[in-house]
Amino acid sequence: RFKMAPSTPLLAVRGSNGTSMIGGPPDCVENTTFKRDERQSRFFTFSKDGALFAWCNGDKVNVVNVSDGQVVQSLDLPKTACLEFSPQKSVLVTWQPYSKTQESAHGDQNLHLWDVQSGECLKSFYQKKMQGWCPSWSDDESIAVRNVNNELHFFENNKFDTIANKLHLQKVTEFLLSPGPQPSKVAVYVPGSKGAPSFVRLYQYPNFGGPTSALANKSFFKSDRVVMLWNNKATAVLVTASTEVDKTGASYYGEQTLHYLAVNGESAVVQLPKNGPIYDVVWNPNSTEFCVVYGFMPAKVTVYNLKCDPVFDFGTGPRNAAYYSPQGHILVLAGFGNLRGQMEVWDVKKYKLVSKPQAPDSTFFSWCPDGEHIVTATCAPRLRVSNGYKIWHYTGTVLQKYDTPADGELWEVQWQPCADGVFPAKPVKYQAAPSELGSTEPKPAQVYRPPALRNKPNTSSKLHEEEPPQNMKQLPGGDKQLSKTALKNQKKREAKKAAKQETKPDTPQDKQPEPEPKPTSPALAGAVSGDPEADKKIKNLKKKIKAIEQLKELQASGKQLEKNQIEKMQKESQLLQELEDLELGI
Questions:
Q1: Phi then psi for 78, rounded to 5 degrees?
Q2: How many CB atoms lie within 10 A of CB 564?
């Protein structure tokens, strides 16, 4: 048997100067048990429990035991480009680019499954595309799945010579196997064609007998591709559906919608109050809530519960990613890529800000399995200058900083995983951890003012109205806390109402000549006709007209309305005519 992973996770580092391992905090020195490979490696990976480490260096695929550095296997596979262990580390999967030769018109099989213990090749397949190259396993390895020509092939107990089951729909392009114990579930996505909608279905293995056997089904339009995400307890899936092009021209990123499906059959569209792209969607490891980063910059971040109701709104800010700690007790909101690398570290239980460190030019972020430390890195080929990595404590302190030499490049860093429960959640600290390198909390910068405006009263004009964080949970009174914008709109409405009441008795001469009052019956004042059907219609029409008035107020306050809201407003005259006809008939 293989030994368990060490208590302090290691950090594997791959770059132009070879592959090495760094000890985790607090020492952060090179691990001598793993012998550095000076050759440039194309890919590396750990087993799920962190006990084994494999890498390919253009000559061989090597597998070592992390705890003592002993070589477990060395396979002569110089062209290997990707590696993966099965969850119980009994199988190593290797993939190399597909190619044809003069001897073989069909080419050679390029996906190989190896027995880790014996080094024997269990099975080889053709896998032309790199996308979805690796089979998916259930956590106990009782099931493995491959997508072959838009059909899912299921294998049982790592017996790859026999297809135990098949799931054939019109054209399955994406699938995702559920985590956790049996029974295994699978989410499948079939894109729409010829005017038919796309759909995602959830099945429980091996019940695939037609659409009625599906646990849940959600169909939708506007979808060129999807990203599916199971929660840890395998009770629900989040589906981010995207189109390549936004036909309204509002967004460069296309259009995105977020859908929720539960294994009990419930499904919903997650309502996002701000227009714009969906940058990131993550489940809390506790499986009871999820976090969404969305909307045109500055982006909003909201946490939702399993009813898709907002629980907490983090307001707006420069962020495009969210990362829960493995224990789910801390949430980091960050703005990487084309943003400045600002991070916000939040205590999830109290929804209280812990720190605001800054990691400019970062292309990679990852939590350490201990839930105390994080790594940020600037890697090539995304950025070829200022390559390096930093190990932080979540309170904002930099514990280790490594800068790649000017003539070198950093390609990848990866924490050694650990089995669940090795690192239980610790109480959240708010005081910065001690370090010689200190913190990177940004100093409050003063706004630039041109010389002509200096020494004059400050008239601030903001490009965006910033929204502060707010708790969205129901208050004891039953009312929700209103956002800053909603409060402002409410005050405007109240002021408008008060102004109307003042002008009514005092200045009738200032009013515009009003049109002739409509010859309506007392129904307008709330009278009834005696016909329940007519009363119901009148009540519904008044409700719709009132909703249109509210939309007009929102538009007047400067809020951008949705397309369907504008269409609703255009029906006002039609609704008024219907109301008049009904009341005349009373």
A1: -65, -25
A2: 7
Phi, psi of 45 (to 5 degrees): -160, 155
Contact predicate 410/13, CB 8 Å:
yes
% of the chain at pLDDT higher than 90: 20
This prediction's pTM: 0.73
Q: What letter would DSSP give residue 424?
A: -
> Residue 383 above 50 pLDDT?
yes
Task: Provide the edge-to-edge strand list for the sheet that holds 111-115.
Answer: 82-85, 91-95, 111-115, 121-125
Burial per residue of 7-23, b for 16 or more beta-carbon CB atoms within 10 angstroms, e otherwise: ebbbbbbbbebebbbbb
The tokens for 521 are 């019956």
How far lies 106's CA from each of 93, 99, 127, 147, 519, in Å? 21, 9, 12, 19, 83
Rounded mean pLDDT, 115-135: 87
Phi/psi of residue 109, each to 5°?
-65, 135
3-state class of 16 per DSSP? coil
DSSP element (H, E) containing 415: strand 410-415
Q: What span, in angstroms and rounded, lies between the C-alpha atoms of 85 and 101?
A: 29
Beta strands in 86-233 (DSSP E): 91-95, 111-115, 121-125, 136-137, 143-148, 151-156, 165-168, 174-177, 185-190, 198-204, 216-220, 225-230
What whole-number distance in Å separates Cα of residue 165 and Cα of residue 318? 47
User: For the segment 446-494, what is each residue's pLDDT rounded down to a tens digit?
Assistant: 666 677 777 766 655 555 556 777 775 554 444 444 555 666 667 677 7
Residue with tokens 């001469």: 509
